[in-house]
């Protein structure tokens, strides 16, 4: 009996340790439908993807149509970059020979306020006082009749030259063309603002502060986008 009892008790003393072994995936057993959780965002990656889908780019114009204050701030940032570029390169090139002092009109540098395109046209190359507009800033260029009076840039007087500065196509038919550069893709916005601000810095350095503002740019957000064909041409240049 003692031997029998000892045999029966042996399993309890020498019982093998239980080891948990993960079971293989059984598709039948785990065939639950989780589609009801599709609307739950469980990763940052999915969040980003969803945002891009909700705000198509560049089809939706709203993200590329910042407020007037945002436009002003962005323009100032590009102006600072352009000014720094001018300072860094000014010592590398020999200064151009300054022209002889011109006879200035009595109203030279007199502020004109906000004027229309028709009013700007009165200050063409045939007048003693000559004005031009670039990105809505009006400059008095009367001190350089050798350029803007009878010279090679006479066609710019009395006009807005913004689009010619952007395209690099310095011709009269590129003047008085008004488009909203913010309705383009980010790369072109950056490129076009750089070109515009480079020209503005050059005009400020030679002719001082603007004397007025062109009314077409008071509501720049409502201007149309540039023609796609011309945008592509600018890219190739």
TrEMBL record:
It comes from the Eukaryota. Residues 28-40 have a biased composition (Basic and acidic residues). Residues 1-76 are annotated as: Disordered. It comes from Durusdinium trenchii. SUPFAM superfamilies: Cytochrome b5-like heme/steroid binding domain. InterPro entries: Cyt_B5-like_heme/steroid_sf (IPR036400). This is Cytochrome b5 heme-binding domain-containing protein.
């Amino acid at each position: 009996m003692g031997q029998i009892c000892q045999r029966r008790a042996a399993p309890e003393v020498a019982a093998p340790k239980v080891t948990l072994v993960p079971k293989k995936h059984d598709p039948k057993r785990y065939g639950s439908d989780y589609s009801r959780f599709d609307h739950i965002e469980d990763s940052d990656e999915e969040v980003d993807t969803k945002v891009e889908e909700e705000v198509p780019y560049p089809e939706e114009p709203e993200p590329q149509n910042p407020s007037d204050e945002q436009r002003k701030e962005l323009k100032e940032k590009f102006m600072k970059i352009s000014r720094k570029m001018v300072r860094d390169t000014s010592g590398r090139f020999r200064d151009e020979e300054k022209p002889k002092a011109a006879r200035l009109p009595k109203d030279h540098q007199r502020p004109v306020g906000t004027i229309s395109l028709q009013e700007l046209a009165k200050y063409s190359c045939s007048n003693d006082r000559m004005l031009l507009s670039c990105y809505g800033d009006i400059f008095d260029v009367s001190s350089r009749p050798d350029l803007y009076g009878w010279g090679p840039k006479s066609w710019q007087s009395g006009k807005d030259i913004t689009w010619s500065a952007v395209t690099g196509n310095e011709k009269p038919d590129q003047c008085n063309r008004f488009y909203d550069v913010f309705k383009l893709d980010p790369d072109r916005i950056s490129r076009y603002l750089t070109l515009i601000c480079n020209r503005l810095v050059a005009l400020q350095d030679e002719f001082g502060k603007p004397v007025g503002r062109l009314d077409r740019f008071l509501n720049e957000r409502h201007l149309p986008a540039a023609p796609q064909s011309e945008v592509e041409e600018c890219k190739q240049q």
